[in-house]
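We emphasize that the prediction below concerns an isolated chain of 93 residues; any contacts that depend on oligomerization or on bound cofactors are therefore not represented. The input was used exactly as deposited, without trimming of termini.
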Amino acid sequence: MGTGARRRPEHLAAKLREIREGLGLSQGELVKRLGLSEHLRRGKISEFERGEREPDLLTLLAYADAAGVCTDVLIDDRKRLPSKLPATPRHKP
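Result of the prediction step, given as a token string:
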């Protein structure tokens, strides 16, 4: 394995913030929308959006599902989020 720092997506934090804002959700509402209330607190969302921390893989998957995109779109700096994200459901199925 290499000895250098782990490579990180440059635009991940901005994409995560864009998803939340595009869905019209507060940080607390996003935690609920992602279905991660038992694993994640609002403060972590803020840390993700400021680039202070990175979400684990399952949290990234939840973000991607909420945005209606593949995880590649979140991870790959060459790919952009769609201009229109899915509407927030009013009720969980």
